[in-house]
Amino acid sequence: MNIFDSALRLLSDRPAFIAEIQDRKQLNQKIASLLLSSFIFFALYGLIIGSFHSWLQAISSAIKLPALYLLTLMICMPTLYIFNGLFGSKRSLAQHFTFLLSAAAIIALLLCGFAPITFFFLTTVTAADYSFFLLLNVAILALTGLFGVLFLYRVMKPGEEETADPSILKLRKTILRGWLLLYGFVGSQLGWTLRPFFGSTGTFELFRPRDGNFLTGVGMAIARLFGG
Amino acid sequence: MEPSSLELLRLPWAEIERLCGLEVNDLWVGSLWAGAYRWGAWRRSPAQLLLIELLVVVLTGILALPLGLWVLRHLGLAGAAGDGAMPLGLSLAIAMGLVNLLRYRCLVQNRRRWRSLLLILEEVDRFHEALQAWELLGQLQHLPDLLPDLLPDLPPADRGNVATDGAALPEDGLPQYGALRTSPAGLEALAITRDTLVTGLLADRALRDRHRQSRSRYGDLVDHLDQNLATLNALEVSQRAAERAELLQDALEIGLAVRQNILSGPSVPLATGRSQQGGGLL
Question: What is the predicted ipTM?
């Protein structure tokens, strides 16, 4: 078993990989491979964004970024599985988990793709450009997250072969869309709870006080960037 | 020996999984979290396994971080740990410790439970190695046929020497490849080995399934063993009491009968005796 095997197959041979999940082939191996490779990729990106502040923040972010993505996935998975099961899905919990981990692995791979760009800005901007660096990374995280969510929607969308009733089919699509929104909402809130990932100019902080939410934080960063 | 025949003899992972009913790969059986490592996994790829174990330990710690934080707060240690990196470190350590303790317990138990399966899988690996060697032998056998294309300038005698790797040339100077030829008997032996391995995997699965069934069938009996023993004990005591009561009843009846005999007339023979004796004396 190669740790990166599943992630590489997601890049090079995605349809066959998805078909294997549908056929329940080697699910445990895929889960292990996707979890470990996503963990490494997220930790790597966390290390880069944390090093904007200090090495302590880099280590902290290398732990917190994988925790953010993987915990969000685990928190939201039971809702999707139970709702899908209620409306006629025959997919097992392991299949759900593998699909969700595939989406997480796509996000992690895309983040790794952006890593050289982030690293370039890390080396060229100063500590005073904290808001710029923060917003740049929020944009990267949002873009990669969007691609991951789109991938998940495409592979988990119920097909016409699953149910003959068009109303059930429509309902399940609506549930999936709603769940994706919930996933994004839980993820952003957990991200806000686990912050800082970048670390502002002050001393190292493991966690910040629980005030405000993700959107107010982004709004304040935009105001600081343009308002001076 | 045709490579396609050898491919037919090979036991792919999917086939092994179908036969043994568990997910199998070169490192573990079942799953990485609650399965068992293969016997030869640490020997075959120690560095890879060490890396995987390290990642799994850290990852489980991170994913169980809320559990660690909860334990820390529940024990009242959150405040004592300070505000810096200490609470996170402590929570991570607690979470890693708790989750991995359970995981290793499960791994050790499964290793014992699946001992025969793990041994058969090692034999399957050896069988595949033998197939590879056989395939290589077949390729070497065909090497002299390919040499004219690969090395057109090489004299025929040298081609034979290259192909047989030092094998003695016969008197007529033509090379003989008998030592390298893959015989049908060897192929048959490989087919028999394959059948034996398949039978072994199926037998092991049947035994495991039967063990599980018997465990569930007699599970109630085992679970209520103390209760059943107490019931049996009570029955035995009750039987003994009944026997004693019967004995006492018999003794009482005998006593009453004797008393009856003493009080009523039948004391005649005794009285007669006494009177006879008494009379005699008087």
Answer: 0.81
